[in-house]
Amino acid sequence: MKLRLAxxxxxxxxxxMYKDIVENMNKNxxxxxxxxxxxxxxxxxxxxxxxxxxxDDSVIVSAFCLCDDNIxxxxxxxxxxxxxxxxxxxxxxxxMQKGIGSKTLDEAKExxxxxxxxxxxxxxxxxxxxxxxxxxxxxxxxxxGVHSEIIDEEIILYEHGYEIEL
Length: 166
Known about the structure:
Blueprint: E1 2-5, H1 11-27, H2 42-47, E2 51-56, E3 59-67, E4 83-91, H3 100-114, E5 119-125, H4 129-137, E6 141-142, E7 147-150, E8 156-165
């Protein structure tokens, strides 16, 4: 398997992969992504050199974005520390339950280390138990605080922060 920055030629495969991920999440009553998010951000993520793909024989098996946003509604261990945030992590449904999520997180940690970041952080919706379990299994620690993501008047997602010191 090979990790690399995504490029515009990956967009059709990424959009199909995330469409399948959304369908699988909806089937499992994890209704946090849709046909707009996260795909709407892929082009700008690629342009900003923040979207990474892990591929196996030209098949994208996972993807994620790394950015240096700062979420201050969470009580991070060291708020001012140099931290990267992982966003939009998705695993191809054909590769689920094969350790790809853990492999992807290992790759993200390695990138953050090479770029001299002290922490890798993320937000996860409070009822996304498969993702929460993945992060805990890979050494991430849940922090105090909640980030409220207001989607519209009827939908508010409550996200918890997780971090790992590198």
